[in-house]
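Quick one: structure tokens for this chain, please?
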Amino acid sequence: MATTQRADLGQGQYAEIYRGAACETADEEIFVLCFHGGGGVAGEPAMLRDFCTEMVAASPRMRAAAVSYRTRNRDGAGLDDMLEDGARALEWARSQSQGAKARGARLYVLGASFGGLLALDAVRRAPDGVAGLILFNPVSDTGPGGFANEVVPAAGREDINPVRLYAEPGQRPRVHCLIAHGRADDVVPVEASRSFARLWPPVNCKLIEVPNAQHGFFNRQPHCTTMSDHVARFVAGGGQPGKGRAGPGNRSGAQPGGTPKSRAFPAKSFLLYCIGAQKAGTSWLYNTLGRSPDCLTTPFKEMHYFDVQRVPQESVHRTLRMRQLQTLSAELAGCDSGDDEKRLRKIATLAEVLQIYTGPPGNHRRYLSYLTAHHTGERVVCDFTPSYSVLDRDAFADMARLGRARFLYVMRDPVDRLWSQTRMMIADSGGDPLKDADFEAACLARLRQQKQDGSLGLAARADYARTMTELEAAVPAPRIHYAFYETLFSQQAVTRICRFLGIDPVPVEGGERINPGRSMELPEEAAALLMQALRPQYDAVFGKFGDAVPEAWRLRYASAT
């Protein structure tokens, strides 16, 4: 049970403080400053009482302070008065957490609705010491056409507009951000949070959209418990979305500071394996499904568990992680720059994922424990590892037995895919960037060499015919969904995938590709070489899907016949 007390901030401000159970007997590690909503017209810290109680129950080493600020109805205050109170509250919170800084304390700022505006303004102006932002249906747009009421004028306040200021170079603090917004919100539209989230690198910001949820949803069950668990994971990971390990008492089920606790796979959830060829859009899909509250993704997009175990050449993925761990350890030993905490977090994250390889052969307990360590009721537990496409039917059968698994196989026009991969390999080969003519020549030279040595078009990850045969020999058809890169970035395609998963559709936010690589038109010689090598793949896909094959494939195939 959380304990509460009241603290005086001066000048009429106060805070209601909630302490997790472990704060009574152990060092406090997490401090969360919370701003309530009310549009600046009304409101008080007690509005956050239920959520703060749930939040410290999920994070027993947390101290949460719901702080007051002047409002229009109670104090006759204007917007600038409220922003001033927000800045003062952050200064106070920073002083509160400063004493425990040496013990690893971290400061977070939470803002709900109008309180989100105060949180964003205060952190932008004075980000020092703040590990992350937590925002529930926040007011993030005070420009013309944005949020307006008795406090924020209809003409807008561009001078404090977060969606503008956070987009400017040097204005966005180097903190992580967790945003949750109900899709049925008729006070602050969910699109406002989508626009604001797009300002951040995906790795630094996670937007959770809650289906059928209205404004202030997080204060009501079952959302109160679900959202407090999301916050617990966020702060446990040092503010890195999706990377948290639970602390003691967290409902996610992980053990503090060590190996995730062994647990049965959640009865009402299932595993999703996303497989496919290289450069086929799986990174974009990982980010898109990761926004769904129904999907649990891992900090590492690609787990590389089954491929490392079953295909000798794929063991390189484990080796690379081991080398990264060694490099970080060496840097830590020889560094006194103050970045120790960041490096230690990376080391802990790598060490945790490497434990999946330590179990006896055929025993997947550690792998499943890692996947589900932070499970808070999500229907789908995801493993996005495209290179699983190299596996055979025995491996697929083994995978299918775990967690009522389903498979999503993404394919891309064979010629376009291999041309994209070739450009990527040449661009990443080291040295100074080549001029366009030299770059094209280098790409063509690589294709000619592959044709000469007989390797052109033989990559196992892009052998659609073989993968489909092996997959369908081991997995029932209703548990397989095929998708095409050329139509993947559409709402229609994502909705079909969500329907296959039995979850609410995830809104598509543009068609941004992840890691697009260097662009270059396909030369005629390259097109001829690639089509000659890859014709069997076209034949296999057309033979299975017929008219469902994207038009781009058909045009490419027709032009070569």
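Residues 524-545 form the longest helix (22 residues).
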